[in-house]
Amino acid sequence: MDVSIIIRTKNEAEFVGETLEKVMGQEFKGTCEVIIVDSGSTDSTLQIVRNHDVKLLQISQEEFTYGRSLNIGAINAKGKFVVNLSAHALPRNEKWLTNLISGFEDNSVAGVYGRQLSNGHINPFEAMQNELFFGGEERTFIMNKRRLVRIHFSNSNSAIRRDVWEKFRFNEEVGYAEDILWQTEVMDAGYSIVYAPDAAVHHTHRVSVYGAYRNSRECAYALASMKKKRRSVLAIMIDVGIFLGLTPNSIFQNVKYILQKKYHEHLKVAPLYVMSVWLGWLVGRIKYRAEKP
User: Fold this and answer.
1) Residue 219 CB: number of other CB atoms within 10 A?
2) Which of 171, 124, 147, 154 has its CA nearest to residue 233?
3) d(CA 122, CA 126)
4) Which residues pair with 32 in a beta bridge?
């Protein structure tokens, strides 16, 4: 088996069918399997999934973390390469998988991540962040050889070498940013990460002030919880880069972006959204300091 595609689901009935259709319609020359890891769906997600030729794995909601679900999927995968895809991340075209896997031409590459395109009318804050991190320029990130604040390996649309994953599994304890922690570990070990903009997906979340707060809080906590030996220059640069992207990085910039793109319906929420990100980051740091031994 060449490729195993792992898709995490929980109540993804709105999009999972379309995502699976686009995955099944890929023009890929190798062999491929699709694995669904569901964590307690109560809508029609499971019914939709069972109508497709996939392997279904089920865990409880209590067992779920992003890292644990991906590790469970990878344990059951047969592919040389393991692709991680969000259930609501829709491949842009039939070449998505080929373009993603083509990033592994060099044996030093541990992971490849693709572009994420967001609908700014639905979420301009996410669209602005994704334009910052997921531009149109192909990039290879190597420890000590590139400025790293723009790297943003994301398991919403990524592929990894299975043999590297066997050495560096995803962190199952953190509630967020397991992909960033993995990226830091493998790069510290001498591997490189490739960004493949042609492997694009459409990936948008509806605006949620609480969601922005929660994600920022969990991301700050996860990055702060890196073992001391991992707090390298690389980790610090990634930390700063993510913070600038999440903010990103002031009310003024968000308002300017909304006006330029004519997303006027989101103007009122911009100050609250940005402040929620700042607050989440602060709370995540405080939470880590309060809990650390």
Assistant:
1) 23
2) 147
3) 9
4) 3
Q: How many other β-carbons are positioned within 10 Å of the β-carbon of residue 80?
A: 16
Task: Identify any residues that bridge with 85 across adjacent strands, giving them in sequence order.
Answer: 7, 157
What is the C-alpha separation between 222 and 199, in angstroms, rounded? 27
| Domain extent for 51 | 3-239
Dist. CA 84–CA 92, nearest whole Å:
16
- Digit-coded pLDDT (tens) for 24-67: 999 999 999 999 999 999 999 999 999 999 999 999 999 999 99
Cα 8 to the chain's mean position, in Å?
12
Task: Name which residue leads in pLDDT, 17 or 229.
Answer: 17
CATH number of the structural domain spanning residue 13:
3.90.550.10
- Indicate whether 151 belongs to any domain: yes
Question: Residues 6 or more apart from 40 whose CB is under 8 A from it?
Answer: 10, 58, 59, 60, 61, 64
Q: Is residue 280 a contact partner of residue 213, using CB atoms and an 8 Å limit?
A: yes
CA distance 224 to 4: 32
